[in-house]
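Write out this protein's structure.
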Amino acid sequence: MPELRFPGFEGEWEEKKLGEFCEFNNGINAKKEQYGMGRKFINVLDILNNNFITYENIIGKVSVPENVEKNNKVEFGDLVFLRSSETREDVGLCNVYLDKNYALYGGFIIRGKKVSDYNPIFLKEALNIPKKRYEIGSAAGGSTRFNVSQDILRKINVKFPPIEEQQKIGDLFSKLDRQIELEEQKLELLQQQKKGYMQKIFSQELRFKDENGNDYPEWENKFIKDIFIFENNRRKPITSSLREKGLYPYYGATGIIDYVKDYLFNNEERLLIGEDGAKWGQFETSSFIANGQYWVNNHAHVVKSNDHNLFFMNYYLNFKELRAFVTGNAPAKLTHANLCNINFKIPCLTEQDKVSALLKSIDNKMNNQMNRIELLKERKKGLLQKMFV
């Protein structure tokens, strides 16, 4: 019996094999030249990135003969599973197709063709609760890559309430998923807004004015070596086996990678720029701000500035395409010498402050939105634990 039920429903749920409700088949393995045209087909990312799948949100297309298309239709209410994955956590993950316009499906997918009555959202959620995920993942074969078979899925036991109760549970989670989706769309709009502002600001299409409505001075060309004071001599790597776990962030090239028992920097705000193992493309995290008490290893340059806004420079570095300054590939590296010779057009400090304040305000909105999404996901997680057996 589930811990939480809708009023008016009583009695035990009935345990049945998944094979009583679905017929299972593997998907299409087409030739390279067949992709990119024809009918949309469901693949791995469509399962991973959607609460439910519709024809519109499917990414890929494939062109196949009529007889192949006929035998590989995914229709409303059908289930789709990840047949193969690099991790046990993802193998056998289930999603559901909710569109009257049929799609096809790829070779890394198993289709569960609906042959008996069930609520699709209910069954998808029932198969993705932690207990079922563990059961399916444990049954998967493989060592470097894990695979689940049609037979494994066919034999999975699922407890079913009456179809009316399934419908109510499905409707509840459908509404929750829709709410999460809407909040994620709001977050995406904020992310696009921030990118738009950055493009206009750093191309100088958008300029700020002073309190009297006058233009600020023209931006000046400066090299990194003239903007920052380097403190790379203060950073210190600790191999993972020697790190003592603690409360203080341990920073590497891409951000916090661990927490340790001690710190090197004590309430000193610094800009950290990835030296190796980072990403340096436009709108990627080439740099980030560190403050409070923290440790930095030797994979990030540590800089400060007495006459430039560190947040402004952080936004600028993450906007700028820096890969041309990176050398090597095992790993790629943004050396101290190359970093010093990168040049920027820089506004006066007051305009830097205004740019930073605007972009930080959008960041705050994005953080609040991410918190809202996380709360909704936690609510869904709690309901899943209480409403399924």
